[in-house]
Amino acid sequence: SPAQMKPSGLWLVLGICLSHVLAEQVFFFGFVGKALLERMDSLPVAILVTALIYGVHRLTFFSTIGIDSMA
């Protein structure tokens, strides 16, 4: 039964990955997006700038760990 299953290393890794993704999304689109929206008059511009900042972050992350693009 599921109650008798012990968590394995795979579940731990998946949990850590999921929590990282959620934290990253909350930060960028919660804090950064909200801050930009408060300072800008246009919702589409604030969303675009937030997305660009997020994209630059992802590009710099992959370049620092030596991974080429995900293609």
Shape: elongated
DSSP strand content: under 5%
**Rg:** 17 Å
Structural class: mainly alpha
Mean pLDDT: 78
Summed up, the helix count is: 2
Succession of helices and strands: HH
Number of strands: 0
State the distance separating the first and last CA atoms.
Answer: 40 Å
Q: Could you list the spans in which at least 5 consecutive residues all have pLDDT below 50?
A: none
**Biggest sheet features:** none
Structure write-up:
- This protein has 71 residues and is mainly α.
- It has two helices and no strands.
- The protein has helices at residues 9-39, 43-64.
- Helix 1 packs across helix 2.
- The protein is elongated and about 50 Å long.
- The termini are far apart.
Please give a handful of descriptors for the protein shown.
elongated; mainly alpha; 75% helix; 0% strand; 71 residues; single chain; 2 helices
Please provide a brief summary of the model.
The chain has 71 residues and is mainly α. The protein has helices at residues 9-39, 43-64. It is built from two helices and no strands.
Topology record:
Elements lengths: L8 H31 L3 H22 L7
Helix pairs in contact: 1-2
